[in-house]
Amino acid sequence: MSRLHKIISELEEISTHPGRAVRKQMEKTGKKAVGCFPYYTPEEIIYAAGMLPVGMWGGQSEIKQADTYLQSFCCSIMRENLEQGMSGVYDMLSAVIIPTYCDTLKCVCENWKVAVPQIKTIPMVYPQNRATSAGVAYMTDEYRRVIKELEAMTGAEITETELLKSIALYEGYRRTIRKFVAISGHYPKTLNARVRHAVIKAGFFCDKKNYSTMIGELLSELKKVPSEKSEGIRVVLTGILAEPDALLDLFDENGVTIVADDLAQESRQFRTSVDMGENALEMLAYRYAIQECSLLYDEAKRRGTLLKDLVKDNRADGVVIVMMKFCDPEEFDYPIYKKELEEEGIPMLYLEIEQKMDSVEQLRTRIQAFTEMVMHKSLFYNGKENDDVHGY
């Protein structure tokens, strides 16, 4: 096995078996672990506290206990997280940080305290008008409260020096993984949809220092091999996440290359850099202030522009919307950017997903039909708008 494929295999193993990977990291580093519910919990603060941030993105287990607290029409990520918490999967965590962006997250925050009392709950309330001076001030106060709770757990002070070191480490991680995302479309076979996803997802279950080193090695190995030709269409993904793996396999089955994404589990996590602030907490607050995501209030609604730019910059053939079932913020955004993409003549495919799906046959049919239509348009487009492709 080449060094390139060995690194990929290691990252796939981490992504596929996150519990095992986290425990291994804890044993290796001697650190306690803190769970981070989606979205945008302050990992830098956890890391500065000498603890290991762990991403909590649900799973594909059978829901048996979480229905006691969350209805079936709630987001599957939150139901899965609560189910796994109640089942003891997360017992290695010393605490969880839960933001309260939407109605379901607000419910989970309170339900977790009762359903999983053995794991400390640290809630976070984020400001809606986050880019104002008041929003930044509020955010820094919330970070200070989290710091006090973590200091009480560890018995050690989280210093400005440690915070700045942690921010620098995470900035390095973000730069490195952005390079991976940029180059992944040039290797549609080696870094197919499933592999690309696994490489990015593994970062939620690793010490970011070790993970950045692995991604750096992966990039070095990729430079040694020639780029690969895409056999089908090139797309941009947008949504919360692109799971289960059976969905990703359908992209590979139909020759679909993911050249860029606007996914909350992927590029939204690392596309924004820290570029201002007088101290560490202000730097984190300002980074949050300029984030773009459906979960965050944005009066200008710039998502359509962002997607059009991703399509243009990456020479994509279309956009695939992976709509998390029952995710109100994502659903509210859809009609706005759909209209903008249609006006630009950009083909779209709308897929409604859940993390645990009994069958993906309907998705297979839709992806296959979309792929065929986009390729047909590319080959035989006569300059007139093809309405059959838009919003499929």
What does this molecule look like?
- This protein folds into three domains: 1-28 and 159-231, Substrate Binding Domain Of Dnak, Chain:A, Domain 2 (Up-down Bundle); 31-155, 3-Layer(aba) Sandwich (Rossmann fold); 233-392, 3-Layer(aba) Sandwich (Rossmann fold), CATH 3.40.50.11900.
- The protein is globular.
- The chain is α/β, with parallel strands linked by helices and 392 residues long.
- The longest helix is centred in the middle third of the chain and has 25 residues, at 160-184.
- Helices cover 50% and strands 12% of the residues.
- The protein has 15 helices and eight strands.
- The protein has a four-stranded parallel sheet, with helices on both faces.
- The model is unreliable at 380-392 (pLDDT under 50).
- Helix 3 links the parallel strand 1 (33-36) and strand 2 (52-55).
